[in-house]
Amino acid sequence: MFSWLRLLRRRTVVITLVDDTGFRGVLYRKAGPLVELRNAERLEPGAAPTLCDGAIVIERSRIAFWQVVDSS
């Protein structure tokens, strides 16, 4: 079965969490209920983006929605 997440791998995405915070980064991989972002920034309402060191791992159940930033 073909996963739609395969289409997003190695693309820059913005992930908004259920608590209205978010992350912008390159979707690196999906492992079960987790997704991994690299070169990520934390996005919070009313604050400047904060660069994150290392990889960010997010549970898919905490994701409200995804946006693709680039199409390359």
- SS content category: mainly beta
Percentage of β-strand residues? over 45%
Helix content: under 10%
Number of helices: 1
The biggest beta sheet reads:
6 strands, antiparallel
Spans with pLDDT under 50 lasting ≥5 residues? none
Number of strands: 6
**What CATH architecture do you see?**
Roll
Q: What's the rounded overall pLDDT mean?
A: 86
Rg computed from alpha carbons, rounded to a whole number of angstroms: 12 Å
Question: How far from one another are the termini?
Answer: 23 Å
- The run of helices and strands is HEEEEEE
CATH topology: SH3 type barrels
Name the shape in a single word.
Answer: globular
Number of domains: 1
CATH class: Mainly Beta
Could you please describe the fold and organization of this structure?
The protein is mainly beta and about 70 residues long. It has a single domain (about 5-70), classed as SH3 type barrels (Roll), CATH 2.30.30.100. It is about 5% helix and about 55% strand. It has one helix and six strands, in the order H-E-E-E-E-E-E. Strands 1, 2, 3, 4, 5 and 6 form a six-stranded antiparallel β-sheet that branches. The N and C termini lie far apart (about 25 Å).
